[in-house]
Design brief:
The protein is of the alpha/beta class and about 775 residues long. Helices cover about 45% and strands about 15% of the residues. The chain has 29 helices and 23 strands. It has a six-stranded parallel β-sheet with strand order 3-2-6-7-1-8, sandwiched between helices. Helix 10 links the parallel strand 6 and strand 7. Helix 21 packs antiparallel against helix 23. It is globular and about 85 Å long. The structure holds adenosine-5'-triphosphate and magnesium ion.
Amino acid sequence: MDLPADLNPEQRAAVVHRGGPLLVLAGAGSGKTRVIVHRIAHLVEAGAPPWSILAVTFTNKAAGEMRDRVERLLGPAARDVWVSTFHSAGAQILRREAEAVGLTREFTIYDEDDQLSLAKRILREANREADSASARDFLAAVDRAKNGVADHDRTGDLPELAERYRRSLRAANAVDFGDLLALPVELFQKRPDVLARWRRRIDHVLVDEFQDTNLVQFKLLELLAPPGTDLCVVGDDDQSIYRWRGAEVGNILGFESDYPGAGVVRLTQNYRSDGNILAAAAAIIAKNPHRHVKELWTQRESGRPLSVIYAQDERDEGDRITRALRELRAEGIPYGEMAIFFRINAQSRVLEEALRIAHVPYVIVRGRSFYERAEIKDAVSYLRLAVNPRSDVDFQRVINSPPRGIGDTTSDRLAAHAAARRLSLYDALTENELARIDGLNAGTRAKLAAFRALLDELGSVARSGAAGETTQAALTRSGMLERLKQQSVTALGADRETAEERYENLMELVGAAREADERFAEQTGDAATREAGASSPLLSFLEQVSLIGDADGETSADRVSVMTLHAAKGLEFDAVILAGMEEGVFPHNRALGFRAAPEEMHEERRLAYVGFTRARRRLFLSAARARALFGELKFNPPSRFLLDVPEELVEQSGAPLRRAEASATGDGFTIDRSYDQTHGQSGSGGYSRAGYTRRHASRTGRNLPSTAAWNASRTAAATVTRVESVDWPTGHTVVHPSFGIGQVIDADGNGPDAKLTVRFGSSGSKRLVARFVKRAE
Ligand code: ATP
Ligand code: MG
């Protein structure tokens, strides 16, 4: 059989390897994912039934991309290959085996919010602190337990509360994310007959990003593909970035002992990045101790140097980043081939604002945001109730939304009664039960009965299994649409817009549901699943909605992708900008300080390696001197990762790096360079850190500590020196005829021809020639 020419000999070896487990351990961009895709195609071409192949990866986005790539090689046959995330594979197994674990196949998957509501209820009932933070802690402990991470339970009653949580889930015919993996594992361990059935079905298992699997995921793989079977795992221990979520890098490093006799293939050629980018990435990761050192080289040329953007503050950073993006665009790189990565979510708002103001098209890769809107959650709750009326979290969410005159007192009475009788809320709505609840008058009882009738009615529509039709029915019969229609007529101003927007969002949801119907019809799917009636377009739509994760926004051909570094794993772009390269941002604050475990910093470093290696041709690192973060103004020194990049790899014109005479030591590291951001400015005039502080303070109007206190508090500070315009010093107040009063944040040149960047209160930052503004003083 012909193999495509664009596989190197090691890649070919991995593609054709047969007769037992295989490990591909290799650096970034060396073609690991490519090996998986070609291996699938090769298996099918060699006669393996597509549905006997299971390929797992971590995000829906990565799974979708993998499916597309396989389809390009195989055509329609690819549709029957089971390409999935771990969680959705677990969900599908559970659908098929629902009864065996005490669920019905209509079980509901509780997302984080649902879990939080449930956790709060449990904590409240146990007279424990029931705020969001406590509920999160509780859930994290439950999840760690499920993922096999031992925990010291500080209070002693965790096991009992966890058990209550579990019971409530089951009573609601619901599972949480952790269950999606833990339940199949438990089931397979208890029921060899069930496991045997699945093993007969799946002959080949392939896993991408294997370094990020946790204990439960590994167990599931071990059960489905024990030693001796065809299990192919690929990964890179240097890209292990989910330790904090229980990922076990030992899974990949210990693979050869868990799977004795496994074939091992190493790939050493990086096909993705230009030489300078690869060299910078290598310099970063080289500083991690105890590495499994891997060779990585490239045939590509050095390419352009890396660029450093050093901004005044986070807004200035946003402006400079958008400017850089536009320049890249002018150089011929489409927006769809550019990405901005950030370390912490709080950074995204300002970046987003800057992009919006500059009219740079972008997409925030944060898939859930649409599904987090109140109206969408309500609609989804109706759908979930239509298939599973016992889902209490959903029941509580919509019992009075849209308002139908069922107040909190009534809900509470109903809930108390249901709890006492160990019934779901829905089951407490029968005439019989209602009659036993004290203090309900006839009117209220009628309203409750009407709600039950509504759920039953939706239930009968849902039995058709059609996602579009059921969604439409849920929106209409619940009264949601009617209410928004009214509001869009009667409400004024902003309220009216919100009503209209919500209406449109709901229509969008109907559209998504119809798409799910179409997709389901297209898929020949696994014949066995279909015959067993284990799924329907509606169920798979709901599953898709619940499992959309942080990394699952649609990227698009002509939009800049904006995402967290964690979401960037496995992806590649022509140009990448890493924002917020500052100590305390990236590396994250939690990795700093003498109490932080050194492993935290190692993980941050791997994350930097992941970020750097996403770039094909251009890599920008940006940092800000001052940053408002979580309501505080911070002066973070430049990131150690920025300083680890060898000077000769960094572009001198944009942001020259200079050896500073001063070096300062902080928590275990040394900064021996300072950054000087001239951006082609002429003129002279020293710019001391103290001077900067004062100006910055006056500009932002925020309270700053005294210079001395500030200096003392920042032992790890890099000296900031700067050459700037004499005539237009930063922080200088100017007046513009139409934009009003603003402050100079950057100046290029002197006199009336100087090019200024001025921040105006409501109009944002503008680039102007100096003659169009007047000095304020
Ligand atoms: P990561 O560690 O980031 O997940 P990876 O090892 O999975 O990277 P791929 O994404 O499979 O790497 O490949 C990186 C890039 O190199 C892709 O654009 C891919 O098409 C290209 N590539 C891989 N192998 C070859 C090859 N033999 N010839 C040409 N291009 C290749
Ligand atoms: Mg990959």
